Amino acid sequence: MTSLLIKVLIFSAILPLLSFAKNGSKSQSNSCFCKLQGEVDDCSCKVENLDSLNNKKIYPILKSLLQRDYFRYFKVNLMKPCPFWSDDSRCALKDCHVQSCSEDQVPEGLKANGNGNPKEINKYSEEAQKEPENCDQERELSALDRTISAERLEAFKNWTRHDDKQETFCEIDDDNTPDCQYVDLLLNPERYTGYKGASPHRIWNSIYEENCFKPEGAVYGSKKALAGSLEGLCLEQRAFYRLISGLHTSINLHLCNEYLYPSKNLLSAPEFKPNTEEFINRFDPKATKGQGPQRLKNLYFTYLVELRALVKAAPYLEEEDFFTGNPEEERDVKEGVKDLLKVIKSFPDHFDESNLFKGDPKVAKKLKTEFREHFRNISRIMDCVGCDKCKLWGKLQVQGMGTALKILFSGDSIGLQSTVNANHKQKFQLRRSEIVSLVNAFGRLSSSIHTIEKFRKLTS
Q: In Å, what is the CA distance from 336 to each residue of 61, 66, 394, 441?
């Protein structure tokens, strides 16, 4: 009897601790979403309204629309060299200039990252190779699937002839060079390929440190650089930072949702599925110096900006023929685009671009020039990405965002009542690649917001 009483007392004492540990774990994972409520920063729209709009209405339409030929084939130049530094991509890549991970096969210059500083951590160093990796598998995962049927290649010739008849607003990615080729996006989904380490860190460090507006003295990854605490920056500078942060968040969400789980044996294929541990590592406050929740909220800002661009371009897109040479396909795409535009036009709380670049005309003009030049530089940095699939999706999403900005600041005026019209092509025109990148980039943001809801359930 005494023994039983002791066991009961011990269990009673332990039970609250177990409950605390369980709730504490749940609280930690839920803390990732602590900022996902209320108004989006520098906007009047609420996060909850965007969740409902996207997950119930926009995401299902986009998921279907992006399966269509017009949007699944993207013309891109993946052969352009990095204009800022020597290529330092990982051995995992298909076109890497070394055949294996062994250090003795790598030129001394690359070991020092091309700048003569051997103290810098290099991806081929012993330290960078501590984690066991299957390079053959990573090389395969990083390689693009360039499968295009002969019938489809012939159809592309008609697409090109059709586009050449159109007046162009600007050149996009050396469209007329042999290196610019069509890629099937459905065969090359955005997901984790094993690309990590010094190379991707260098990409994002260059974007944030050299091309983003940020508080003086703030360093990429530091608490002072937190996008929700950008004291001293004007609205335009905050908007630029949040745009890039939202894009970065979206990409990270795709990697967490389609995370690589290596094959268990030689006969089985690797799996891609959600990784809740990776999600918490990237967005939990404790793991990110408090930045993770704000990063998630910045996604909604980027989503609102591209949503507004689609609304403004609606009159133009509604008159687009979406030529593929297949009348039935073209008709279905037109209907899908009109359904999408009908939904987003009915949403009342759009981003208002007229709030940007106001005040002193000279100051506004200078700021707008800096805004444009910073973004153009970021688009060039995408050619420095060392993984072909990562480069593909990086270029597409940056070009889509650039197209959105082009739309927002084109036309006779800017503001919620302004539009761009297909009947005024001397003043405004979108090329096929711009339309494809715009809709696919918005599709990626839509997918990311949908993925947040998935991780909310998985971590609850």
A: 7, 10, 25, 17
pLDDT of residue 19: 43
Are the beta carbons of 277 and 25 closer than 8 angstroms?
no
Q: What is the pLDDT of residue 425?
A: 60
Per-residue pLDDT tens over the stretch 318-344: 999 999 888 999 999 999 999 999 999
The backbone torsions φ and ψ at residue 271, rounded to the nearest 5 degrees and listed phi first, read -110, 150
38: burial class by Cβ within 10 Å (0-12, 13-18, 19+)? exposed
Residue ranges in the chain whose pLDDT is less than 50:
1, 5-27, 89-132, 166-171, 220, 223-228
pLDDT tens for each residue of 34-55? 889 999 998 889 999 999 999 9
| Bridge partner list, 74 | 183
0.70 surpassed by pTM: yes
CB-side neighbour CA atoms (13 Å) of 243? 27
HEC per residue, the chain: CHHHHHHHHHHHHHHHHHHHHHHHHHHHHHHHHCCCCCECCCCCCEHHHHHHHHHHHHHHHHHHHCCCHHHHEEEEECCCCCCCCCCCCCCCCCCCCCCCCCHHHCCHHHHCCCCCCCCCCCCCCCHHHCCCCCHHHHHHHHCCCCCCCHHHHHHHHHHHHHHHCCCCCCCCCCCCCCCEEEEEHHHCCCCCCCCCCHHHHHHHHHHHHHHCCCCCCCCCCCHHHCHHHCCCCCHHHHHHHHHHHHHHHHHHHHHHHCEEECCCCCCCCCEEECCHHHHHHHHCCCCCCCCHHHHHHHHHHHHHHHHHHHHHCHHHHHCCCCCCCCHHHHHHHHHHHHHHHHHHHCCCCCCCHHHCCCCCHHHHHHHHHHHHHHHHHHHHHHHHCCCHHHHHHHHHHHHHHHHHHHHHCCCCCCCCCCCCCCCCCCCCCCCHHHHHHHHHHHHHHHHHHHHHHHHHHHCC
User: Residue 180 has what pLDDT?
Assistant: 83
Distance (Å, whole) CA 340 – CA 74:
20
CB-CB contact of 73 with 185 (8 Å) = yes
pLDDT at 413: 67
| The pLDDT value given to residue 3 | 56
